[in-house]
Amino acid sequence: MSDHDDGHAGEAIPMLEANDIAVSLGGTQILSGVDLTAECGSVVGLVGPNGAGKTTVLRTLRATLSPDRGTVRVAGEPIDDLSTKEVSRRVASTPQATTLSFDFTVEQTVEMGRTPHLGRFDRADEDDYDAVQAAMERAEVAQFADRPVTSLSGGERQRVLLARALAQETPVLLLDEPTANLDVNHAVRTLELVADLAAEGKTAVAAIHDLNLAARYCDELVVLSDGEVRAAGDPRDVLTSETLGDAFDAEALVTRQPGTDAPLVTPLPDRDPLDAAVHVVGTGGQAAAAVARLVAAGSSVTVGVVPAGDAAAERARELDCPVVTVPPFAGVDSNARERATELAREADAVVVAGDVGDANQSVVAAASRLVAVAGEGVPRIESERTTVTTVESLPEAVADLPPAEDRDERAVPSGEQQDRY
């Protein structure tokens, strides 16, 4: 029988479990009736607006805050029955704030994670040294080992604190906004590390601000709002427009992330709907994101020419946008080119995003008003009539375009070319 089996019905005991948690601070109710279950080897994400109670949940799970009501169990043991050191051998945590006021080196800071494993007069041994070195390597801070922790950037300090938690070698990790100070690359690498740790058997509960990262890397999500659980479960079931509207008091478009079945959340702007017909030219994830952003803003969107199966084509079909496709790696025939060119001519604006390819140059040429999403493909189509922007600012850029010139005066190449992507 495993360490986490109850011995009765063969049901595994959750590694971490909170039941009916209620917390009030200064006479204000912060949490009410919160339930949370994290199985061994899983990543559970806490999401919700600022002030929803995510940090308070983590503090309660860590036993640094006693609830007014409810119980927290670690591997079946009530956390209130454990000493501080016993809790620290089971649960490690990283704080949201990375401010450190002492001038210890990075290695010395990570060594603090070994404290729960040492007696009052014990000195660190070779096993402790190995644990510290391994933690620094996994958190990618070994190169900073001899530097004062106060000399590091916020993102680097965030990774040092993660290394300190890893050095504790606990079965449970509690992470409060572990990607808050990181660039996109390090945010992804950090969550990849958390996923790897879960695959090795650790259990992680993380408060994550970015809904799309949470959807991609968490096995389950708990949506908090006003101290209550609004929804919990598989990200595909939890991240719905209805739940997000209830929790965040905001409208959002929910589609799927390219290359995965994870939800993709695109917030709908508060501004008036973008009453414009927009044709999107380009392939890949950037073009797919542009399509979703424009549909979310209220635009009537068409797409093409794109290869069938491309992320932009799939996003267009998912959102019921007309799309002109050709078989992958095939030439663009005159019929497909003419259909896409006509859509571009009829549109109020043409948006270029991702790789345009030689095949779409005539479609771009048909645009009376052109917006390009910043990226590698922009230099190919830059001109005086091009506005360059980001995916996030795309609706505003389209809305702010100057009046269109006479579309009939624009020359549109034709012919039987078979340009390939």
Summarize the helices and strands and which ones pair or pack.
Blueprint: E1 16-25, E2 28-38, E3 43-47, H1 54-61, E4 69-74, E5 77-78, H2 84-90, E6 91-94, H3 106-111, H4 126-138, H5 154-167, E7 172-176, H6 184-199, E8 203-207, H7 211-217, E9 220-225, E10 228-233, H8 235-238, H9 241-248, E11 252-256, E12 263-267, E13 277-281, H10 284-296, E14 300-307, H11 311-318, E15 323-326, H12 334-346, E16 349-352, H13 361-365, E17 370-373, E18 386-389, H14 394-399
Parallel strand pairs: 3-8, 3-9, 6-7, 7-8, 13-14, 13-16, 14-15, 16-17, 17-18
Antiparallel strand pairs: 1-2, 1-4, 4-5, 9-10, 11-12
Helix pairs in contact: 4-5, 10-11
How would you describe this structure to a colleague?
By secondary structure, this protein is an alpha/beta fold. The protein has 2 domains: 16-267, P-loop containing nucleotide triphosphate hydrolases (Rossmann fold), CATH 3.40.50.300; 276-400, Rossmann fold, CATH 3.40.50.1220. The chain is 30% helix and 24% strand. The protein contains 14 helices and 18 strands. It has a 6-stranded mixed sheet with strand order 6-7-8-3-9-10, sandwiched between helices. Strands 15-14-13-16-17-18 form a 6-stranded parallel sheet, sandwiched between helices. Residues 1-9 and 406-418 have low confidence and may be disordered.
